[in-house]
Specification:
This protein is α/β, with parallel strands linked by helices. The chain is built from 8 helices and 15 strands. The strands form 4 sheets. The protein has a 5-stranded parallel β-sheet with strand order 2-1-3-4-5, sandwiched between helices.
Amino acid sequence: MTVRTLIVDDEPLARERLRMLLASEPDLHPVAECGDGQEALEVLARERPALVFLDVEMPERDGFGVLAEASLVPLPVVVFVTAWPQHALRAFDAAAVDYLLKPFTVERFRRTLTRVRERLAAPPGDLRQQLQRLFQELRPDPVPGSAERLVVKTGSRTLLVPVEDLDWVESAGNYVTLHVGAEEHLLRETMAELEARLPPRRFARVHRSALVNVDRIVSLSPTLSGDHRLVLRDGQELTLSRTYRARLEQVLGHPL
C-alpha cells in the first residue's frame, strides 16, 4: 500500500531534506509540500493524506492550529518536526505518533518511520503511553537560567540573539518583543517562560510587562506613586513597579 504523505514546513531546506529521506521509502509517497499553516489546511482538505510531517512554528498558523482546524475525519497520522523541545507536551494532546527534534539523524528518522508504519497498521487507540515513551527520548529540559542565546524566526531566516545583547524585553501576550539596540525581534514565548530561561543574576522583572538587563540601567529615581523610573543606556525609560522592587534589589545587591 502506498501512503499519501504531506510535508509541511516553512523552511525550504527542511522540506527538501524530508523529501530526500522519503525518496528511499517506496511505500511513502509525498503528494504535496506546504510552507505555511493556511496552505496546509487547504492541501489537507484537497489531498487527504494519510501521513503528515508537520512543522510547529510557521506563519499564518502553527502546526497545532492546523490540526485544530483540520476537518478530516479521521485525522492523518502526524509527525511533528520542530527545533523546539518544549512543544513535546502539547504533542500528547494532538495525538502525534512521533516528534522529530531538529536537527535529527537518519537513524532517528528511520525510528520515526517504524512508529509510523506501526500506527498505520494498528487500529485506533490511546497513544498516550506511546507518546510518553517518545518524550523520554527528547532532550532534557535546559537548566533554568542557563540560556546563552535565543532563537528567533523572522520569515525564512533564523536569528541567534546572544543573551548579553538584550537590553530589555517587553510582553506582548503570548509573545515577547526583544529589544536589542535599535532592533526589535518578536519571540513566541510568554514573559514567564523567557524569564525562567534567562540568567537570574543578569535579568530582573521590573514590571508585569517588562524584563530588563540590569547592566543596561544607568539611573533610578522614585516617583510620587511609589514606583521608580528606570533609565537605560540608550535613553529608554521604564517603570519599576513596587511589586518587583525587591527582586531588583536582590539582583543589584543593594536597597533602593
